[in-house]
Amino acid sequence: MYLANTGRPDAPPRPPGARRRVPATVIALGAVSLVTDVSSEMVTAVLPLYLVLGLGLSPLQFGFLDGMFNGATALVRLLGGRLADRGGRHKRVAGAGYLLSALSRLGLLLADGATAGIAGSLAADRIGKGVRTAPRDALISLSGPPETLGRAFGVHRAMDTTGALLGPLAAFAVLWATADAYDAVFAVSFCTGLLGVLLLVLYVPPAPAGASGPSAPAAPPVGPTPLARTALRDPAFRRILYAASLLGAATIGDSFLYLLIQRALDLPAALFPLLPLGAAAGYLLLAVPAGRIADRVGRRLPFLAGHTALLGAYAVLLLPVARPTLAVVPVLLAVFYASTDGVLMALAGPVLPAHRRAGGLAVLQTGQALARLLGAAGFGAAWTFWGRGPALGTAALALAAALAAAWRILPASPTAPDTTQEAL
Amino acid sequence: MNPRATRPRRLRRLLLVLLAVLLLGGGSLGYVLHARHRGLPAAAADGSFSLAEPGLYYRDSATGRVARHDGAGGPPATGGPACERFHAAGERVLCLRKLPGIPARTQALVLDRRLREIQRVTVPGIPNRARVSASGNVLSWTAFAVGDSYAATGFSTRTSLLDLRTGYLVKSMEDIPLTIDGTRYHAPDVNYWGVTFAADDNRFYATVSTRGRTHLVEGDLRNWSARALRENVECPSLSPDNTRIAFKKVSDDLAAPWRLYVLDLADLREHPLAETRSVDDQAAWLDDGTVGYALPGREGRADDIWSVPADGTGRPRLLVPGGSSPAAAN
Q1: Do A194 and B24 touch (CB under 8 A)?
Q2: Looking at this predicted complex, what is its ipTM?
Q3: Which residues in chain B touch residue A199, judged by CB atoms under 8 angstroms apart?
Q4: CB atoms A63 and B152 under 8 Å
Q5: Residue numbers of A between 262 and 321 with CB closer than 8 Å to B
Q6: Residue-wise pLDDT tens digits, A51-107
Q7: Residues 6 or more apart from A228 whose CB is under 8 A from it?
Q8: d(CA B135, CA B200)
Q9: What domains are defined for chain A?
Q10: How many other β-carbons are positioned within 10 Å of the β-carbon of residue A103?
Q11: Which of A180, A424, B139, B219 has most Cβ atoms within 10 angstroms of its Cβ?
Q12: Model pTM score
């Protein structure tokens, strides 16, 4: 059922949040993401230990390696989106990304502790992750009618997060069973990654005809006009991009938030990993309900409300509240992610024409990621120069201002059929 | 939901997935079982190996076991105990091993020179530094605590001290009363690492890190106190004649963050050594004029042991390819 979100006039007006089945494409992509996340989080969970113990890398070097690769992902993501739009090759480009990440585990296995091999494998993994994200999200957004996209993304993100939670458990189980054989973790991760690729190949249909069909020139983005410019030309998309970037620049980053909780609670180091775990579990539970609400009331409100929840988290950390109250911070963070991450894709997807969707989403994700990087760096500097309290106060003010601005910038109801039609 | 996918095609697809799950699952299981069977490297030393003979002992990178370097250029004597970090002096051997499982734990194994076990202590973290006093009476080791947000929050260390004469064990010395610039210092973020002992088995030196700075501290075991002497000194190592300290110092060069220096305790003047590469190790004095240290290995080896004159002259020399944790025993 390729109900491409062209806002078909003959589509019967369904009550919002109708009990309709989630498109098979979404379930398939969710399963692929789940299996892939088990594979990648297995490695992520043991990598610090492996690098520091196995390689004698200092924490400083490890942080540097990690940050460098994260920065490079942004550019690769743009490329992935652009490649996918050319001739509607979403599935192939996403598949190549998944395959590259799976093969990178084999690289870790064969590197056998050699620094260059490990760095190369990590780079390959990040490239694969960067390449696949935008085509995958474009496939999700093309899989069903626009008014159900919130739920579709919610389902996908919930499955994705499930994998992220299972991965570390699987890794620790392997380490426990093998008396710390890190290579066994890499081997199992490789096999799991391959399974993800196979699921994609067998169960995910290629992008619907609208994403490459005759309605679009054979290869529209090639040539003098870069894709980003064509997507940026659309005023509705531009508004979403501005709002998301503005809000992104006012976020301080999870690790700082967790650090603030740890400082406030004087949490023992052993309990520290529970904070992100708690937030992820909350995200997992809230992703689908948040998506459904977004389908019912429009995506703008939940997106803004999610950032208000983040503002609430800052406030709780700023105010002299009782220590147990701080437990709401991970909950607020879960609300923030559930009502902004997939919802933003559902907000922007319908605005973009099908044959430019992957590229457009890539621009949006990259813009948001870079803005967040900037926000976290700014907060880090403010913390160093002004101290914790003033830095957080400033961040809260900035977020409040960004929220007010986003309220005005964001188009009122970008999911309404007529707006969609216009954008197409 | 491909409408063209008819029933037999769906069935075939499902069978393919099941087959893949079986194959990949079987492969995973096989690898895990293989790795499990492989297990830990032989923990105990071969009967023929001991530290009775003088020479340069070290950890062999390929096997993870202690070996002895034959100064004459012959083949090394192998088959010592398996250790992540190792040091030996006087009558005692200190072998740090990482215990399997999560969270990471370090086992400090105290042996005599015939490799008979004297004591074993388990602390949280992964093995990082090991030192035995010249007499073998006092020992210290450091373990890294690794969290999930390792890069974001920096690292923390836990340094233990063990006095074999009294059996007195301090699992973490972070509560030792510390004086910086003449005043008693209190902070929750103090981290100690890299202890080195003087010949009297009482005075010791170590690095303390707090609020983003590192200090060289001089400690007193009996009075249980420490005072900061100097900033930007890490992993001190006292010379056999107790007059100088070799240490690593943070440089401005990002490509080579740590450089080796020697500090003269008489006038507190320091000079750089001829090694220009970054050294992330606690140096070990091979004699009163030479220090040894491990660097990332060449040609695919995990590490190599190098030596350099302590007076700043000369040039680094590759001492043991594929080794770390050097300890000169006489």
Answers
A1: yes
A2: 0.74
A3: 17
A4: yes
A5: 262, 266, 269-270, 272-273, 276
A6: 766 566 655 555 556 666 666 677 889 999 999 998 889 999 999 999 999 999 999
A7: A78, A359, A363
A8: 9
A9: 25-206 (1.20.1250.20), 226-424 (1.20.1250.20)
A10: 17
A11: B139
A12: 0.69
